[in-house]
Structure formats: structure tokens, C-alpha cells
Design a protein that fits this description.
Distance between the termini: 39 Å
Number of helices: 15
CATH topology of the largest domain: MetI-like fold
Number of domains: 2
CATH architecture of the largest domain: Orthogonal Bundle
Strand content: 5-15%
Largest sheet: 4 strands, antiparallel
CATH superfamily of the largest domain: MetI-like
Radius of gyration: 27 Å
Order of helices and strands: HHHHEEEEHHHHHHHHHHH
Helix content: 55-70%
């Protein structure tokens, strides 16, 4: 028994751990990055289950609830036996000032709207497959209205629209980064590995793209999209536009590292051993760039999110009825409207949280993947 224990690799011995386990140990020491990993996973989980998480239909309008302010959740209810834990909000009625005729919502303390978990509400199809009417939270009475983050100019629930907007804005970042990653690794790797005329041609293309101002190019390409296209087609084209401009920096870095790695002893040994070019590139050269590739992916996702948000905010990206954080912020352009309904800027808070979380996550992953950090 003692011999078996002596020969077993010690899980606490760094020499016995795999590279992935070592990366995870280093990453866990980065507390802020670990927290941001949880925030990022939570955001993507909310986006994936938007139909279940959103308390109401994001497109449901209500002319009597226009610019309804956010409602405060109360947690304790006074009962004859004492206090009970029953979350609720007070109903609010729209009234007009008798002098200025300005509309205002007045709290009615006699009317309470009870809140609960896993309540019945608007029917939906989760991912277009599963039929259900169960929502994570909402009003216990299906006919009651609750606006925890307020309502917009058409009386639509802002919380539900922000949750649904996360699906588009966050997925644009992932799809766009995937396209940029593939283009950057393939073209940068070919340029640095083969050199010669191939390297010259790819570098001239990269320099031409980098010489173009990014924002005007985005605006020009987005403005060229036909307005008659469906939201889904526009979504994929916006993603393609963003990724076609964002792959150049990664390609130049990959090319430079490949030029250095070609002269390394273990690369020469792999070539002399008869390894194919694909094996040399993907098995021996790319793993040496793991830390930079991981950092580039996580730091590029927020750039993609900001690009989509900026284009949609300017009216050149996704257009209603598509819901994204950019299209929601587009409604906050009017200063007069924003003065009376500042909660329309809440999608910008969601953008800031997602961008900061992904940036700090990228820093932690970069440090964890770099053996010299």
C-alpha cells in the first residue's frame, strides 16, 4: 500500500499537474478575474434563457404605461402575526397635474402587486423548441404589470428588453471574434510560416485595411446594407463587417511570432522528423501562442460589443424590431425624453458591466496562460 502511494503522482505537486490544471491554479489566484468570470457566465446564461428570465414579453406595448418609472421592491409585509417575507411592489396610477397638465405616476398604497418565483406569464418558445409560460420571476397575478427597471415610450418593460438585448449584443461579440480569430490565425500563420511572396501579399492587404479609419469604414459598410433585409440577415452582416475589420492586428502578431518560432530548435527537429506542415503549425507552433490568443479573444469580445452598440446607436446597425443594447440606447438620444426618463440609459450600464467583466477576465486569462507571468 505504501509503495502504491509513493508512486502515485501527487496532485499538489506542480510537476505532476497538466498545463490546463496549472493554468486554472494561476487563474484562481486572480480574484478579480475569477469574479468577472462569474459575471460573464451569468450574463451569457441570462442571454441564453432570455424567454425564461424576462418577466414579460419585450414587444408588448401598453399605452397607459408610457415612461412608467422603475418600481421599488418591498420585501416585508405587516400581518396580524407580525412581519412576513412577501416581496411586492405598489401599483402606480397615471395622473396629470391640474395646473401644468404634466403626466406623473402616483403610488397607490392600497394596491399591492405580489411578486414570486416561477410564475405563469406570457407563453413563449424557449430556443424556438420548448413551449412554456413559466418565468423566473414576475407578478403572481398574470394580469398585473410590473416595471422593475421602468418602461419606454411605448410602455414596454425595459428589464425584459435589456435581457433580450443581451442575447444579440453578446452573441455578436462571440461570432465576430470567432471569425476574426480564424482569419487572423490562418492568414497570419500562412504569412509567417511560408514567407516570400505570400507573406508580402498578405501584409500589403493588412496594411491597406489598417490604413482605413475604422469607424468611417463601419459606417459606410453598414449604411450600404439594404433596409429591406430581415433582422437576422442584418445581424449576420453586421457581425461579418465587424470581424472583417478586426482580424488584422491578431494576424500581424501571429505572423511575427511564427517568424521567430521557425528558427527554434524544436521546430527544426519536428521538420527533420518528417512532421507535416499542418502538424508543425497546429501541434508545435500555435500552442506557444496560447496566452496571447486567449487574451486576444477575451479582449476582442468587448470591442465587438461596443462596435455593434455604436452602429445600432447611430441607426446604421440593427434596427427595430430587432432588440440589442444599441437599439435600446438609440431611444435615449432625445435629451428631452432622457430628462424625464433617465432609466432609458440602463442598457448602457449593461454594456459597461459586460465590457469591464470581459476585460478583467482577459487580463486574468492572459496572466494564467503565460508561464513567465
Amino acid at each position: 500500500m505504501s509503495a502504491a502511494i509513493a508512486t502515485r503522482p501527487d496532485a499538489r505537486d506542480p510537476g505532476a499537474a497538466s498545463q490546463a490544471r496549472l493554468m486554472w491554479r494561476r487563474f484562481c489566484r486572480h480574484r478579480l478575474a475569477l469574479l468577472c468570470l462569474g459575471v460573464t457566465l451569468l450574463l451569457y446564461a441570462l442571454a441564453a434563457g432570455a424567454e425564461f428570465v424576462a418577466p414579460s414579453d419585450p414587444d408588448a406595448t401598453n399605452a397607459r404605461m408610457v415612461f412608467h418609472p422603475p418600481q421599488v421592491v418591498h420585501w416585508l409585509v405587516s400581518t396580524p402575526a407580525g412581519f412576513a417575507w412577501r416581496p411586492f411592489v405598489y401599483a402606480e396610477a397615471l395622473k396629470r397635474d391640474p395646473v401644468t397638465l404634466a403626466p406623473a405616476y402616483v403610488v397607490d398604497p392600497t394596491r399591492r402587486v405580489a411578486l414570486g418565483l416561477f410564475v405563469h406569464g406570457t407563453p413563449y418558445r424557449l430556443w424556438g423548441l420548448l413551449r412554456s409560460d413559466i418565468h423566473l420571476f414576475g407578478a403572481v397575478d398574470p394580469g398585473a404589470h410590473v416595471f422593475l427597471l421602468g418602461a419606454d415610450r411605448l410602455g414596454r418593460d425595459m428589464l425584459s428588453r435589456i435581457v433580450f438585448g443581451a442575447r444579440v449584443s453578446l452573441s455578436v461579440g462571440l461570432v465576430g471574434v470567432l471569425c476574426s480569430l480564424v482569419l487572423g490565425i490562418v492568414l497570419g500563420g500562412i504569412s509567417g510560416y511560408f514567407g516570400g511572396q505570400t507573406d508580402w501579399l498578405i501584409q500589403r492587404v493588412i496594411e491597406f485595411i489598417l490604413s482605413l479609419p475604422t469607424i468611417p469604414v463601419w459606417l459606410a459598410l453598414a449604411a450600404a446594407l439594404p433596409k429591406t433585409w430581415s433582422p437576422i440577415t442584418t445581424y449576420f452582416m453586421i457581425t461579418l463587417i465587424i470581424s472583417l475589420v478586426g482580424w488584422t492586428q491578431l494576424a500581424r502578431v501571429i505572423r511575427g511570432r511564427f517568424l521567430v518560432l521557425r528558427g527554434e530548435t524544436y521546430i527544426t527537429a519536428a521538420m527533420l522528423d518528417g512532421c507535416s506542415q499542418a502538424r508543425v503549425i497546429f501541434r508545435h507552433m500555435l500552442p506557444a501562442l496560447t496566452s496571447h490568443i486567449i487574451a486576444s479573444i477575451t479582449l476582442a469580445v468587448p470591442q465587438m460589443i461596443l462596435a455593434e452598440t455604436a452602429l445600432s446607436f447611430l441607426g446604421l446597425g440593427l434596427q427595430p424590431p430587432a432588440i440589442s443594447w444599441g437599439t435600446l440606447l438609440e431611444e435615449a438620444q432625445n435629451v428631452n425624453t432622457l430628462a424625464s426618463a433617465p432609466w432609458l440609459l440602463l442598457p448602457g450600464v449593461a454594456v459597461a458591466i459586460a465590457v469591464l467583466a470581459l476585460n478583467f477576465l482577459g487580463d486574468g486569462l492572459r496572466d494564467a496562460a503565460d508561464p513567465h507571468a
